Amino acid sequence: MPYDITSIRQDALRSEISRLRGKPVTEMEQLVFDVVLEGGQRMIARCERAGPDQEDPREVQRRLHKHATVLDTLQKAYDIPVPLVYHIEPDPKVIGAPWILMDRISGGMLHYVVSRWDKAVKEDNMKVVLAQHATVYACIFDTIMPEPLSSMLAEERQYDHIDPMPTAFDIKLHYESFTDDPDLLRARAYRQETATFIAHRFWKLMHDGEHSAEADGHPELPVLHKLKALVPAFIPTVEAYLELDDNGQSLLGSKKLHHYDPSVSNIMVDFDTAKITGIIDWEFTVAVPALLSAAYPEWIRYDGQQSPTSHWSSHLLQLSPDKFEYGKWREMYEDNVGKISANYLKAMRAGRELQELVDWCRFAVYGLPLDERMAFLDSWVNSKAAEFGVDVESVPIRRKRDWM
């Protein structure tokens, strides 16, 4: 049963949050606090920034309700271990900022727990974690997204742009032959949805907002144009999009629930049992094409030396490329997934190269030294261009104004 929020003195709650932060709530960015309620019950209060110069209060309210709906759906429809939401307060007047009160998940972040396991138990414990992770994400993939979450995600601004992506920036897929076959037309439409979704990611990174590559004057803009030009070659064939899953939906094209930040810091694990106690930070959840939803865990997705995630998840677990640890764990993860969901395994394998491209789009500027990283990415792009027969050298370098 939800905690009775009316029994909590609002001024006491505000005082506790302010004490933890050390300054008034109204000055905070979005922050998370471990709050002790009456009777010693420990919970999490997640606060949004508030104030007259901030975003539309209705957008804050929508985001809070979306977060709560995602968590509620994951518990009830997917049986996923996530925090239970006790109360949503979109009114900033109550404690000085909009907030949401939820369960405090026990355990520690995966990389923190792994670093403290003895060598004698580390491998066996990692096997337990991977098996549970495979079960969680295969379940999400195989379950039809229920209402009201499905409609909520379909209607919201999935791509979170400051300026809308111009039509000219989209990645358009072309076909040599005409068809009026409804199945082929549907498969082509799913492929185009995949390409357009990726185009939105590129728009945000390259041109949208004060932290985009163009705005910051980063040197990666030319290589990102090349990377974008490779997308059509990486998307599976129309024939692959014709395959249906067990629910009668497109195996690669139907929309799936997607955790936007599935890093090691958002997976909570019990130190003694290696059990996943919870997966957190679902507030930016989106609905994505199934091909992009199915992916190897971020921390073993690549070999860790120089990769899209080597600045973060791969590095934090401190696995050894020399001992082929990344490959070993990927194979083990595939075995676990295969026992649970043949469809998830197919989609995961089909989208592996495209996932790497999308990850480079997301994380191109992360990791130091930047010059070395850009040189590696440029080499990667050129080798893939040669493999797929794509001319990336003649791709024009355009600015935001050129697309408008």
Explain this structure.
Helix 8 runs antiparallel to helix 14. The chain has helices at 10-21, 57-76, 110-116, 119-142, 149-155, 182-206, 213-216, 221-234, 238-242, 290-293, 313-317, 325-340, 342-350, 352-363, 370-388, 400-403, and strands spanning 31-36, 42-47, 85-89, 99-103, 108-109, 255-258, 267-269, 276-279, 286-289. With 404 residues, the protein is an alpha+beta fold. The mean pLDDT is 85. It is 46% helix and 10% strand. The strands form 3 sheets. It has a 4-stranded antiparallel beta sheet with strand order 1-2-4-3, with helices on both faces. A 3-stranded antiparallel beta sheet has the order 5-7-8. It has a two-stranded antiparallel sheet with strand order 6-9. It has 2 domains: 5-103, Phosphorylase Kinase, domain 1; 110-403. It starts with 9 loop residues before the first helix and ends with a helix. It is globular and about 70 Å long. A hairpin with a 6-residue loop joins strand 7 (267-269) and strand 8. This is Aminoglycoside phosphotransferase domain-containing protein. It comes from Lentinula lateritia. InterPro entries: AGP_Transferase, Kinase-like_dom_sf.
